[in-house]
């Protein structure tokens, strides 16, 4: 019997959703950063075994939106809970259930799919704190499974996958067995550049940044020539991104190029320009041009 289905991972910003997706897949497909609200688009990743296929929808963290981009991210995340076969509610050990998790719990209660409570970062917290967390959440909802894990180190992730497969319904193979994501190469390249920018800049800048792939061509020798616009909201941010004598932008470019070459398995010539588009996160036209197509 072949089993297949769709799984969505929900949780507050920065609880480790993308890290968990990457650990399950064994590939770096979702942008990972220590800045919250990193994931902006729902990336479908596909895990295929001998007798199963699980399609993961990676969502933005659910949070109180501050602009139209934030509205898009939250709507996208809450919509992903509907019409899936399984929901993974990812949390970190805590002393009390916060407002953000209560909001997610209310959304979960309105849908019919089974829900796993996945407690991340158990290796970084005491057994007492983990046990307290499990007790609190168990009183709020009747979870189909409760699985403590470390997404970063891979602890119990194999167990989580096995339990997910058990919950999948009988169904077809939706994608070819060698296909691991439905995101195209340009999108993943843009995400790599954005990730390296997030890691190299100050906290107040990252969420005002977008990446636009202007050109991506491969020559007869197999080398990719990629031109990128790095878009920020303020003139003052442009100088910070470029850095003294261009040092910051150079570091972003070098680290991004290294990872893009690993992803494409080819040599890459990467050029990055910094452009200012004031208040782009509240500009519907710019948001659509940058790939946020579900804006209302």
TrEMBL record:
Domain KH type-2 intervals: 201-278
Subcellular location field: Cytoplasm; Cell membrane
Domain Era-type G: 3-170
Function as written in the Swiss-Prot or TrEMBL entry: An essential GTPase that binds both GDP and GTP, with rapid nucleotide exchange. Plays a role in 16S rRNA processing and 30S ribosomal subunit biogenesis and possibly also in cell cycle regulation and energy metabolism.
SUPFAM superfamilies cross-referenced by the UniProt entry: P-loop containing nucleoside triphosphate hydrolases (SSF52540), Prokaryotic type KH domain (KH-domain type II) (SSF54814)
Chain residue ranges for the region called G1: 11-18
GO molecular function list: GTP binding; GTPase activity; ribosomal small subunit binding; small ribosomal subunit rRNA binding
Gene3D superfamilies listed in its UniProt record: 3.30.300.20, P-loop containing nucleotide triphosphate hydrolases (3.40.50.300)
Record region (G3): 58-61
A Pfam family the protein falls into: MMR_HSR1
Region (G2): 37-41
Protein's UniProt name: GTPase Era
GO terms for biological process, alphabetical: ribosomal small subunit assembly
The keyword GTP-binding is assigned to this record: yes
Main location group: cytoplasm
Residues that, per the record, bind GTP: 11-18, 120-123
Keywords: Cell membrane, Cytoplasm, GTP-binding, Membrane, Nucleotide-binding, Ribosome biogenesis, RNA-binding, rRNA-binding
Gene: era
Family: Belongs to the TRAFAC class TrmE-Era-EngA-EngB-Septin-like GTPase superfamily. Era GTPase family.
Assembly description: Monomer.
Membrane topology annotation: Peripheral membrane protein
One annotated Gene Ontology cellular component of this protein: plasma membrane
Organism: Clostridium celatum DSM 1785
């Amino acid at each position: 019997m072949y089993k297949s289905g769709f799984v969505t991972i929900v949780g507050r910003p920065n609880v480790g959703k993308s890290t968990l997706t990457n650990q399950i897949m064994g590939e770096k497909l979702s942008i990972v950063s220590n800045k919250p609200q990193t994931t902006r688009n729902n990336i479908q990743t596909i895990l295929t075994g001998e007798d199963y296929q699980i399609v993961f929808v990676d969502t933005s963290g659910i949070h109180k939106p501050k602009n139209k981009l934030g509205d898009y991210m939250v709507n996208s995340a809450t919509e992903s809970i509907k019409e899936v076969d399984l929901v993974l509610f990812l949390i970190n050990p805590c002393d009390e259930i916060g407002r953000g998790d209560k909001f997610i719990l209310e959304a979960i209660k309105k849908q019919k799919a089974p829900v796993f409570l996945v407690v991340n970062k158990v290796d970084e917290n005491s057994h007492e704190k983990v046990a307290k967390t499990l007790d609190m959440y168990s009183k709020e909802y009747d979870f189909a499974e409760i699985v403590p894990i470390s997404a970063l180190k891979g602890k119990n992730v194999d167990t989580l996958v096995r339990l997910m497969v058990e919950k999948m319904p009988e169904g077809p193979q939706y994608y070819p067995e060698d296909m691991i994501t439905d995101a195209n190469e340009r999108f993943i390249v843009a995400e790599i550049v954005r990730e390296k920018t997030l890691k190299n800049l100050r906290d107040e800048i990252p969420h005002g940044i977008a990446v636009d792939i202007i050109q991506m061509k491969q020559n007869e020798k197999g080398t990719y020539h990629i031109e990128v616009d790095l878009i920020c909201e303020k003139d003052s941010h442009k100088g910070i991104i470029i850095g003294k004598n261009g040092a910051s932008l150079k570091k972003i470019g070098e680290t991004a190029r290294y990872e893009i070459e690993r992803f494409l398995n080819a040599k890459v010539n990467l050029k990055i320009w910094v452009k200012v588009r004031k208040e782009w996160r509240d500009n519907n036209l710019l948001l659509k041009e940058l790939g946020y197509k579900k804006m209302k």
